[in-house]
Amino acid sequence: LMSAAEKREREREKAARKAKGSGPREENDKEAEDELEFEEGSDDDEVDLGDDERIAKLKEFIVAGHTPEECAAELEKLGGQDAIVCGAMLTGRSGEDFAKAHFLISVTLDQGGKLTEEIVANKALFKACFASNAEAQIGFLTAMELLIVKDKRNGIKVFDKVCKTLWECDVVEEDQFKVWHARETVLQNYYAEFKLGDAIKMRESAQKFIEWLEASEEEEEEDDPK
Fold first, then answer.
1. What phi and psi, each to the nearest 5 degrees, are found at residue 90?
2. I need a labelling partner for 127 at 20 to 30 A (CA). Which of 97, 109, 168, 208 fits?
């Protein structure tokens, strides 16, 4: 765990990076923004017959107007054991962090709007659920990977924008992006239709964001030598 001083220093560095530049692929990327819209013709409000019943329970709890912290506690209470994802059961406690993230994403991000805007709209809820737990953040990125390869395939090539939004909203720390990036086949554990080619393309896109972060860190070290 980071000390309070280390946490303050990391927050200071992050704020400096945000101020220095808007990130990768920002110029003339209206086309990239369009890629993050859900495809027309998909019935995003229709309940999948293979949905875990906990998704409906979580949705009802969130819609009732509970605070982000209360919703995070309810998600923990529901748990992810023996989760049903895409019609298949994840046996026992395998993939609990992934399953809980999948439940929340199914409620909040599969609504037919622009993905980055939906993330921003739900950032307080995501922070309450994931920001304090590194493994939960990796599970969240993996569940996001599932959402995109299954329902939002145009987003594969612009996943760097999704990563940047999650980072700016303080939902996922930069170290966890790198861990997820290195686990190229992690989704294979949870999704029968996993395709290695999709995983590679998503990580190629995410690499642009990771390289931008690393370049910003190097610039800060040059500007502020210790």
1. -90, 110
2. 208
Contact, 81 vs 125, CB < 8 A? no
**What is the secondary structure of 134-180 as a DSSP string?**
HHHHHHHHHHHHHHHHHH-GGGGGGHHHHHHHHHHTTSS-HHHHHHH
Query: What one-letter code names the amino acid at 86?
Result: C
What is each CA distance from 206 to 12, 37, 160, 163, 209, in whole angstroms?
23, 18, 4, 7, 5
Size of the chain in residues? 226
Environment class of 180 (CB within 10 Å of its CB; exposed 0-12, middle 13-18, buried 19+): buried
pTM (2 d.p.) = 0.81
Nearest CA to 84 out of 59, 49, 50, 108 is that of 50
User: How many H-runs (helices) and E-runs (strands) does the chain carry?
Assistant: 11, 2
pLDDT for the residue 35: 55
Cβ neighbourhood burial of 14 (10 Å; 0-12, 13-18, 19+): middle
